[in-house]
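Handout, section 4.2: multi-component inputs.
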Amino acid sequence: MSKSLVLLTPADTAACCSPLTVEPLTMQQAEQVAPLLKALADPVRLRLMSLIASRESSEACVCDLNDAFDLSQPTISHHLKVLHEAGLVDRDKRGVWVYYRARTAALASLGALVGNPAR
Amino acid sequence: MSKSLVLLTPADTAACCSPLTVEPLTMQQAEQVAPLLKALADPVRLRLMSLIASRESSEACVCDLNDAFDLSQPTISHHLKVLHEAGLVDRDKRGVWVYYRARTAALASLGALVGNPAR
DNA sequence: CATCTATATTGACAGATGTTGATGCCTGTG
DNA sequence: CACAGGCATCAACATCTGTCAATATAGATG
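Output:
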């Protein structure tokens, strides 16, 4: 059971609405999407996300991520948890190491919501 | 002097970097971009932004925006200020009324950074 | 089993954030 | 000039957030 099950997460709600420039969000929609933005709206988490998502496999080991920051290990662990609970990354324990994988689909729909693909 | 001057705002830093899925952000880049996401990462502000950006003229009067929420007028004023200071909206006082206009270019580059147009 | 290593959880704390009522500042109008 | 209405600012408050040291957990290894 090392592969995490594909369950419904907050990130799945990113595709709930048309881009900001197209149609106003209902309060309910805004409350669904805001947590995703909040998860990214921290310098450390934003960089964590970029470090994970820019890998060829879209995944990175915590051991590598820890070294990329001048922060304590619990702090990084906390930020990864926030990203995971928002549904922006999947968690996969392999042996002693834990890998986080970017949910690129969630990122894509979130990006489409914020900045219209302009086409 | 009703038209707000076009000055350098935080939003201008959104185009600072390649998409998250392409290249990792430096800490400095992350610290530049995160405030933009933070400005949008509140349900009220996200909906405010959508209410403004989805208008044909990309602008809306505060008087209309106030009515769209079940919140006090100072609260809406506060959120609009946050969006403005992030550089996501421009402020334009016309007579007694104040209009906020979406910086669609800023939204576009922010969206492109989060979710790569994948092409 | 004892131990080491990688990661998560807990508890605590300072600082940031969202909200409101009261108040101030403009601007148009009588 | 006095007043009314639209919006911003202020002061105060409860709540949330980022951070770390200490500790727990879980897997590998001797």
